[in-house]
Amino acid sequence: MSVFPYFYPHDNPRTISLPLEIQSTMKIGISKASGSLNYEKYKEWLQVADPRVNSIDLSLLSIEPAVSVLESCAGLVLTGGPDVNPARYGKESELGRCSIDSERDDFELALYAKAKELKMPVFAVCRGAQLVNVAEGGTLVIDIPTDTNATHEHARIKDTDGEHNIILQSGSILTKITGEIEGTVNSAHHQAVERLGEGLRISAISDDGINEAIEWNDFSERSFLIGVQWHPERMNYANPFSIALARHFLFEAESYKLLLKRGEHATQPSA
Q1: Cα torsion at 9, 10, 11, 12 (round to 10°)?
Q2: Which in 111, 191, 215, 230 has the greatest CB count within 10 A?
Q3: Is residue 208 one of the residues assigned to a domain?
Q4: Looking at the 3D structure of the chain, how many domains does it have?
């Protein structure tokens, strides 16, 4: 039995009539949404997808208050940024090839743990996807150009995102959401998912063999989770791998919010 109902393009979730109690403002926690124009784009991306969204920049708080605020949200977005400390996945000797922020690791791992505990929808971007994989016991490729046979430049070039094709894996939620089996995405990373964390599957790879997206292998008893290596918030919104993903994530957040409301009503004593 699914924890949440899943809706795909043919269901046209934007036209589904929602109960009045979830037609109000929807709070979405963002792990970091300030400090640069690129970080601020996450809020804009979500707002374009659904004007009712009230994005909360959790990075403005310390860990305990941020986790507390997250409890009142309907979804969590884990954003891009520096490398996850390789000591967290057994590659301490590779620290010299990474640019890390251990305090941010602690902060976002705590957010992810709380979201998972609450069975809250999670959308993870670039570093965020890597962080989820590490949190679930997986490992990362330390440096794509050095450690793989990739033929594309996956990192940014002179502050400009790269671009390459991806191939979606049959049966993935990502395929069902987008209605696509391949496409073109931007690229701005030098690391990638290597060994998968427990319970995860690869849902997209680049055409030169780099893992580009993850999701749960079995959604039947889990909340919504997708992690992508590209940056949908910085892409042309018309691309099926940009705003369509935000809209679906937010619809999952709506479903989560509704279930919470129903749970509150069910636990209230009768008159």
Answers
A1: 60
A2: 230
A3: yes
A4: 1
pLDDT for position 226: 98
- 6 burial level (CB within 10 Å; 0-12, 13-18, 19+): middle
Task: Establish whether 231 is a catalytic residue.
Answer: yes
Q: Are 127 and 80 in contact (CB under 8 A)?
A: yes
Residue 255 covered by a domain: yes
pLDDT digits (tens, 9 = 90+) for 122-174: 999 999 999 999 999 999 999 999 999 999 889 988 889 999 999 999 999 99
Note down the domain range covering 178. 9-263
Specify if 270 maps to a domain: no
**Contact (CB, 8 A) for 29 and 111:** yes
Q: Considering the candidates 126, 164, 180, 190, report the single residue annotated as catalytic.
A: 126
In this structure, which amino acid lies at residue 119? Answer: K
Per-residue pLDDT reduced to its tens digit, 211-233? 999 999 998 878 999 999 999 99
Q: How far is CA 42 from CA 4, 34, 122, in A?
A: 24, 9, 14
**Number of C-beta neighbours around residue 60 at 10 A:** 12
Catalytic residue chosen out of the listed positions 231, 248, 252, 254: 231
Residue 21 is a catalytic residue? no
Select which of 108, 180, 215, 233 is catalytic: 233
Write out the two tokens for 10: 């043919």
- 66 in any annotated domain: yes
